[in-house]
Amino acid sequence: MKKIPLIIAIALTMMLSACSTTPADNAEKVVKAVAEYCDNVEKAIADELIDDNDVDAIKDSEKSYMDLIAEINESYAGNANDRAEFEQQMYTSDVWVRMADVNGKLANTEGYAKLSLTNK
Fold this sequence. Notes:
This protein is an all-alpha fold. The longest helix is centred in the middle third of the chain and has 24 residues, at 52-75. It is 78% helix and 0% strand. The mean pLDDT is 87.
């Protein structure tokens, strides 16, 4: 009978530790989302023409990583140290260099104006 509360306590501890994420974990989520955005842009510009399907994929993935960054920043509202660690981890990734490169190529692709004309 004494084992049941112990089992429950262990289970709760495991669930809490599984749910908590570190700033580095959150930064990795953002890096993956930005990499997905870059993948979508590279697919879109491969044929040197941005069509409506490309616009949807680019806009959706852009919204995804931007919403994720906003959500994580909001979660650190009262914790400046974790927020600073998150931002440091996130911005030290090479994915931002890749993003700048693909965005430069995107801007020189036919149909680029469609992106600014689409609200998502």
